[in-house]
Amino acid sequence: DGGITQSPKYLFRKEGQNVTLSCEQNLNHDAMYWYRQDPGQGLRLIYYSQIVNDFQKGDIAEGYSVSREKKESFPLTVTSAQKNPTAFYLCASRRSGGLGYTDTQYFGPGTRLTVL
Amino acid sequence: QKEVEQNSGPLSVPEGAIASLNCTYSDRGSQSFFWYRQYSGKSPELIMFIYSNGDKEDGRFTAQLNKASQYVSLLIRDSQPSDSATYLCAVIPDMRFGAGTRLTVKP
Questions:
Q1: Would you place residue B95 in the very low, low, confident or very high pLDDT band (cuts 50, 70, 90)?
Q2: Interfacial residues of A (vs B; Cβ cutoff 8 Å)
Q3: Which of A42, A90, A102 sits opposite B43 (nearest CB)?
Q4: Which of A71, B38, B51, B102 has its CA 20 to 30 A from that of B83?
């Protein structure tokens, strides 16, 4: 059963703490993405990775960090430097990260992070 | 900064009507365009994509692309209450999204 899994579904964090959101895919996709979504808003790109051991900043990377040590895994750490981290976080993957213009991007179920 | 903009909502149509959703993009190098539907609290799901100028039809959905005008649209024919959702436009190769248009179909 192929797909993208994200854990946990809900996460609560105290101010000043770092937290790591998990994203795993078994689709054998090269590219993986992290987005943030605030209530009533669209998706904003945080980081993306087109290949293992390589990743690029998106539009709102400040206060976040990622790693891509394995093809199937792309964890996102929300650091204490992120001033307003409460949001819905979505992980996605595509077969290729380049100009494969018919390659669909698939999404995980998301993690809802709340800072207390 | 590469921009993807969608027509401001919310959009409300009666059941059975045609809903029209629009998206413009700033990067002329954009190759392909994806339309996603997102129900409240859920992750986006793909409706269809288009990469050639003209129309592409899939059931009740039609995507229209005009690269010269940097414009892509999604038409939903015979709108149903179950179509009520937020519709997101995405542009590759960057996979950047517009802010979304919230559609409500009233019975």
A1: confident
A2: 33, 35, 40-45, 48, 59, 90, 92, 94, 97-99, 101-110
A3: A90
A4: B51
Residue A1 has pLDDT above 60, yes or no: no
Q: What separation in angstroms does the CA of A7 have from each of A71, B65, B82?
A: 17, 37, 28
Nearest Cα of chain B lies from the Cα of A109 at a distance, in angstroms, of 5
Six-digit token string for B105: 């179909």
Confidence bin at A97 (pLDDT 50/70/90): low
CA distances from A6 to A26, A53, A108, A113, B88 (A): 12, 20, 6, 12, 21
Q: Identify the closest residue of chain A to B85 by CA–CA distance.
A: A40
Torsion over CA: A44, B7, A94, A40 (sign): positive
